[in-house]
Each structure stands twice: as C-alpha cells, then as structure tokens.
Amino acid sequence: MARTVGIVGGMGPAATVEFMRRIVAATPAADDRDHLRMLVDNNPKIPSRLRAILEGDGEDPAPVLEAMARGLARAGADFLAIPCNTAHHYLDAVRAASPVPVLDMLGETLAVLAGGRAPAKRVGLLASPALRKVGLLDRRFQAAGVAVVHPDAAGEAALERVIRAVKGAGAGEAEREAYAGVARGLAGEGVDALLVACTELSMPPPPDAGVPVLDTLDTLVAAVIREATLPD
C-alpha cells in the first residue's frame, strides 16, 4: 500500500499547487486509486523567508514550519516534503521537530547532478539571492565536486523581480524575458547545466539557453513517488 506524503506548502501557494500537479502527472496510474494520497498544508501565512534571510528583520519561519510538520504527521502523513528551496535553510529544525521523515530536496538534486552518466561539474544557479547569502547550495555542492555559478548583482535583482511577480499577479512577458536573459548569461559562463532552485522560478516555462536545465521541484517529485511506493 502506498504511503501518504505530507506537503509543507504555501511557499508560495501557486508553487505548491504546481508541485501537486507534477506529482499527479508523474505517477503511473490507470485509475484514481493508483494515485498518491497527499495531505497538504498550503499555508501562505508562513513568515517570509526572504525577509528573515535577506533583510534580517523578518519573523523566524522555523516555528511555523515545525508546527506544520507536526500537524501533518498527526493527520496521517508517513513522510514530508517541502516544495521550497529557501525553506531548506530550516530543514534541520523541521526534521528535529517532525515525528516522520522529511525529504531533502537539495540533497536529492545533488544526487541527480553528481550521479548521472555525465555528471555536472559546474552549474548555473537560477534561484533566490537568499540561497547565495546563506550558502545553502554552495557548501554541499562544492563538497561533492560541483561548482555553483551565481548570477551577477543585476541578474540576482532580475530573478528577485520574477519571483515577486510570480508570488503576486504572475510573470508577464517582461519577467519571462528577464529570466531568459539571466539564464543565457549563466550559460555563457561555461556551465554544464542550469539549476532552477526556486519553486516560483519553476512556474514560467524553463529558459532555453542552450544547456540542460534541471529543476529541483522535479527531483522532489521523483523522490516523493519513490518514497510513497517503497515496498513494505
């Protein structure tokens, strides 16, 4: 019997819905009963990760994330997934508070990058500037022999505008073109692949910059399906 996934969501709410859609689309199913059971706390009231990390004056999101994890476990989740890259800054705290296992989206992504037939050694990062500030990816990836190339200051500012647009009314043509421009700039730095590591940046069409694109949201989808369907 498939295990139930609990989704610590709301970061942002549209990205959580997209995560659920991708799980449904990727699940081998011939009927409703073949799909996974998902318990979802799509909570957009979680304190801003960007304000807490980038601006330094925001409320700590960790206590809310911890409470959500405990609530999903009480509701019957067998394991948890957090479809937000920046929220993985608080992964250790959530794991310590959760009575059930919590998947590591960034660890799953690193395993894909480093374990393929042609492992990526240099990736261009399309993400919130918060990831660079806390070194969330850099330390782990560099330890595995994967160099992370960040956009310049103008590129980071452009990505932040795209992220905020998606959280609001949605990304328009100007935001999509800015996104593609940052991707092309990173591709020009000689990267092996581009890594989409912000779930808001998973919402627009993936940028075509002439190099492979890996999305952390997709690696988390694959991990959820794997964990939910493990043999008893």
UniProtKB/TrEMBL annotation:
- Pfam families documented for this protein: Asp_Glu_race
What's the top EC group for this one? isomerase
Keywords from UniProt, A to Z, are: Isomerase
**Gene Ontology MF annotations:** amino-acid racemase activity
**Which SUPFAM superfamilies does this UniProt record tie to the protein?**
Aspartate/glutamate racemase
The EC designation for this entry is 5.1.1.-
For this protein, the record's NCBIfam families field holds: asp_race
Q: Hey, which family's this protein in?
A: Belongs to the aspartate/glutamate racemases family.
The entry's protein name is Amino acid racemase
